[in-house]
Amino acid sequence: MYKVIVVDPISEEGLKSLIDHKDFQVDINTNLNEEELTQIISNYDALIVRSQTQITPNILSSAKNLRVIARAGVGVDNIDVDCATKQGILVINAPDGNTISATEHSMAMILAMARNIPEAHRSLQSGEWDRKTYRGTELYQKTLGVIGAGRIGLGVAKRAQSFGMNILAFDPYLSSDDAKRLEITRATVEEIAEQSDFITVHTPLTPKTKGLINEDFFNLAKPNLQIINVARGGIIDEEALIKALDDGKIAKAALDVYNNEPANNTPLTQHDKIIVTPHLGASTIEAQEKVAVSVANEIIDIFEHNNVLHAVNAPQMSGEVEAELRPFVELSRTTGEIGIQLFDKGPRELKIKYHGEIALDDTSIITRQLVKGVLQQDLGDHVNLINALVLLNEQGVTYQIEKNSKKHGFSNYIELELINKEHSIRIGSTVLNGYGPRIVKINDYPVDFKPEKHMLFIYHTDRPGIVGKMGQILGEHNINIASMHLGRHSIGGEALMILSIDTIASEETISDLYAIDGFKSIHKADINSTFET
Ligand SMILES: NC(=O)c1ccc[n+]([C@@H]2O[C@H](COP(=O)([O-])OP(=O)(O)OC[C@H]3O[C@@H](n4cnc5c(N)ncnc54)[C@H](O)[C@@H]3O)[C@@H](O)[C@H]2O)c1
Ligand SMILES: O=C(O)CC[C@@H](O)C(=O)O
């Protein structure tokens, strides 16, 4: 039974698939403080949050059994993702469940601000009938600057176009083809500041976007500018905003999000030129149900089928790429495991080469599998696909990736090289159509074997009788040989023998094998064959 804790208010209707599932126990407790959550978190396999609960390193350090943190929404800034990654905890979100709601809330804010709806409402309720003070501005033929043209930004742009607005957008990932197709003009942040009548912000909060709209920006702005933020507090510098409004540099603002939430104690919520809502962008019945359904189904899929759709801190495979890469996944981890066992000391560097069709795919999952295989021998089960690269870095091991779509004898070929000052070892692998995974190269030896659970790699001099002696010694130790492969450079020269054996070879067996004249070095490789993320 997997245990899941829900710590923020989330639609129970949307979580139904998880709550009703026989393999999951769902505890809902939305009143926990940091200390209380820290005390109980080790009981849980999965944690579901919205934007309220801060998932701190303190909580995570006690989360000994936690495999997944699911954010029922988009932004994950309330979760210490770096810390979760280091601990190998997968973070997922529900990126599109609340897109329409946040888009519509943005439009509502623009319209409410342009037409003074909150102020006029308050005035009429207080007994006034003031039509002059609350005269508004049309959106028609005005310029809307969109900063961050992702799901919500483009949704707002599309709706604003139907109001007859011209759209300027700044987003490093907005291509000129897409902009043309969407009838949007790409612009710099400065051009947006200078030319816009309205501005809407839809980026995540990152070190680059924090304070992106600041005093310098407001100094360039038109005095009639009306600006909204339904993305994240901090993208607009709050002090600079108040100053710009007070100095008449811009006209109005509408905010749904704040540096500190709940925003009970800030001049922003009391300012005459700012209209405010308490982080309501995603607060609709539909959005809350959609994000809850999304995280509930994904948690089931992760625990039951190892399928990750919306990973924030891990690569994900989908559709065609998944089908194409799946056979390489286990082979890569096994290659890493063999590599580290053939390489006596710790490597300082890994070189990973992808040749052939595979080089055209996103191979990050394969890279992580290779690294996981390398690290698992020393670090154990703690290593997973989420923390593999972070742990590699912590071990002081660098890695390089080389991709070449030209064939290297095989339609797909992956090579792992482990390197330190003294030596290096290269292991080439492929998946052969109809034959499955194969190791096809060890250093310069061309080989062809399917990796098995227990293997011996013996470097020796090629000479008659050596195989018989070896068979006899293994027989004396009650070890059955399942298969044997030989790679050699020349008759009587240096050679490599690879044995797949049915049981693990003891140190005593290895030492007896060393007595064979011509055996130079013997390496055991025992593979942990279960596939998991
Ligand atoms: N107020 C709410 O309740 C609410 C609801 C949903 C989402 N949000 C927030 O809205 C934001 C956008 O959500 P989304 O679903 O559209 O995300 P998205 O990932 O689809 O879009 C974000 C866009 O920002 C762009 N971007 C990133 N850094 C940038 C930079 N430095 N300059 C310009 N563009 C940059 C990205 O390229 C991307 O296109 C997120 O911060 C999210 O947390 C708020
Ligand atoms: O959960 C919420 O209500 C806020 C969600 C929103 O800010 C998001 O980033 O998805």
TrEMBL record:
UniProt cross-references to PROSITE patterns, sorted A to Z: ACT (PS51671), D_2_HYDROXYACID_DH_1 (PS00065)
An MF annotation (GO) of this entry: NAD binding
Keyword Heme: no
The enzyme's E.C. designation: 1.1.1.95
Keyword presence, Amino-acid biosynthesis: yes
Domain annotation ACT: ranges: 455-527
Pathway listed: Amino-acid biosynthesis; L-serine biosynthesis; L-serine from 3-phospho-D-glycerate: step 1/3
InterPro entries per the UniProt record, alphabetical: ACT-like_dom_sf, ACT_dom, ASB_dom_sf, D-isomer_2_OHA_DH_cat_dom, D-isomer_DH_CS1, D-isomer_DH_NAD-bd, NAD(P)-bd_dom_sf, PGDH
Pfam families linked to this entry: 2-Hacid_dh (PF00389), 2-Hacid_dh_C (PF02826), ACT (PF01842), PGDH_inter (PF19304)
GO biological process entries: L-serine biosynthetic process
Reactions it catalyzes: (2R)-3-phosphoglycerate + NAD(+) = 3-phosphooxypyruvate + NADH + H(+); (R)-2-hydroxyglutarate + NAD(+) = 2-oxoglutarate + NADH + H(+); (R)-lactate + NAD(+) = pyruvate + NADH + H(+)
Key words, A-Z: Amino-acid biosynthesis, NAD, Oxidoreductase, Serine biosynthesis
Role this protein plays: Catalyzes the reversible oxidation of 3-phospho-D-glycerate to 3-phosphonooxypyruvate, the first step of the phosphorylated L-serine biosynthesis pathway. Also catalyzes the reversible oxidation of 2-hydroxyglutarate to 2-oxoglutarate.
PANTHER family named in the record: FORMATE DEHYDROGENASE 1, HYDROXYPYRUVATE REDUCTASE
Family note: Belongs to the D-isomer specific 2-hydroxyacid dehydrogenase family.
Protein name: D-3-phosphoglycerate dehydrogenase
Species the sequence originates in: Mammaliicoccus stepanovicii
